[in-house]
Structures are given as structure tokens and as C-alpha cells.
Amino acid sequence: MESMPANMLASAGIKVVLTTRDEQRGLQALETLKASGLSHSVVLHQLDVADAASVATLANFVKSQFGKLDILVNNDGIGGVEIKDGNLFNSALITNGCVSNEWAKGVFSYDENLSEERIDEVLKEFIKDFEQGSLERKGWPRYLATYTVAKASMNAYTRIIAKKYPNFCINCVCPGYVKTDITANIGFFTAKEGVAHPARLALLPNGNPFGLYYIQNEVSSF
């Protein structure tokens, strides 16, 4: 799965910086790209999004080697199906939807009052309810709650930065129910089919709509 976004972008003639926490898996992805004749278009760099020093190292590398990024595809996160340690849950959540909690849905859906502070408020409330064992009673998702709320928060943040930087084409996308490790490979779509949707958005020319949420190819409400 790691090599597929890089494969599609490299196939379009783009120089790709492929990042991964696990360098061994990154090297395996490069081998896959080598078999496709695309490894010359891809540079591997280690990145742990939960480590500020790692993020800074990548930023310095990009600046020194390329000057800037023209395209950023962010599909990173940390999470788990079962997390028993509250502190671990905190760090997992912050670095990672549909949300059942009506109050949270209201915060995420109301564009005029949406802000980073409001998103933080939702996340803090979610953490509190988790620690008190009241997720189900408070109406939060019952399945993969951490992942779901985190992705919904990321989508909300996308709208904030899209408004903040209108000269950039910033969108978010749900690729559908894809066969990956997190779905135990029982999704409806192959990884290649899923990756096609963020790749399409990444290759949109300047002047296209921004601040939107797509479910595959269709614009959807948040």
C-alpha cells in the first residue's frame, strides 16, 4: 500500500519523496517501484509525524534538495483497534470519518465557527469521555472510535487551512472501504482503486475548487 500513491504520482512524471516510519518497509516499497521502473523518480526519507525532530529533519531535507513541495499527500496517523493506556491514547489521537456524537457533528459541520480551538475542544471532550468509559453513552462511534474521530478532525482541519491558504488547492478524500490491514483486507476496493482518488486530487491543476470533502470521486458534505 505504501508504494501505490508514489507509483501513481511518479508515473505522472512527478519527483516523489516517499516517507515512512519504518525504513525497512520503505525499502520494500522502493523495491516494488523498482520493478515498475519508477524507483529513479522516488526518494525515500524516514518520517515519524509524532516526533517534532523527525518532521523538522524532513522539512530541512525538502528545502535543501528541492526548495519546496508542490504537492503534499497526507495519509499518516497513529492508532489502534484497542488501546488500554490513557496516555498512549492521547498521543495516538492527536496524530491521527463519521462522528456519532451530535455535539461534535455540530462543531465540525458549522463552517462559520469552525476553528482549531473548536477542534481541540472536541478532541479533549472525546479523551475525557474515553478516560471515564462513557464513549457509548455519550454517542461516540462504537467501532474504531479513535480512528474515526481523528479522521473527522483531520477533515475539519483541512477546511480551516483551505480557507487560510486560498492560493493552494487543499481538499480531503475518503477512498472508500479499501482492502488494507486496518480493514483486515475485507474491503470492497483494492488498494490501487482506493489510491486513485487522492492521486486524482493531488494532480488537479491550479484554479480548481478547494476546501472540499470527497467520497471517492463525488463531493460530499462533511
Can you describe what's shown?
The protein is 46% helix and 9% strand. With 222 residues, it is mostly helical. The protein has three domains: 1-72; 77-161, no CATH class; 165-222, no CATH class. Strands 3-4-5 form a three-stranded mixed β-sheet, with helices on one face. A two-stranded parallel sheet has the order 1-2. α2 links the parallel β1 (16-20) and β2 (42-46). α4 (86-95) runs parallel beside α7 (145-164) and α6 (116-131) runs antiparallel to α7 (145-164). The protein is globular. The protein starts with a helix and ends with a strand. The model is unreliable at 80-97 (pLDDT under 50).
Short description:
This protein has 222 residues and is mainly alpha-helical. It is built from 8 helices and 5 strands.
- Whole-number count of domains: 3
Number of separate helices: 8
Q: What characteristic shape results from the CA principal axes?
A: globular
Give the fraction of residues assigned to helices. 40-55%
Strand content: 5-15%
Overall number of strands: 5
Quick one: biggest sheet?
3 strands, mixed
Task: Encode the helix/strand succession as letters.
Answer: HEHEHHHHHEHEE
Q: What would the average pLDDT be, to the nearest integer?
A: 80
User: What is the gyration radius calculated from CA atoms?
Assistant: 18 Å
Report the structural category: mainly alpha
N-to-C terminal Cα separation, in Å?
Answer: 26 Å
Query: Which regions have little confidence, pLDDT < 50, spanning 5+ residues?
Result: 80-97
Spatial strand order of the main sheet = 3-4-5
Keywords: NADP, Oxidoreductase
Family: Belongs to the short-chain dehydrogenases/reductases (SDR) family.
GO molecular function: oxidoreductase activity
Protein name: (+)-neomenthol dehydrogenase-like
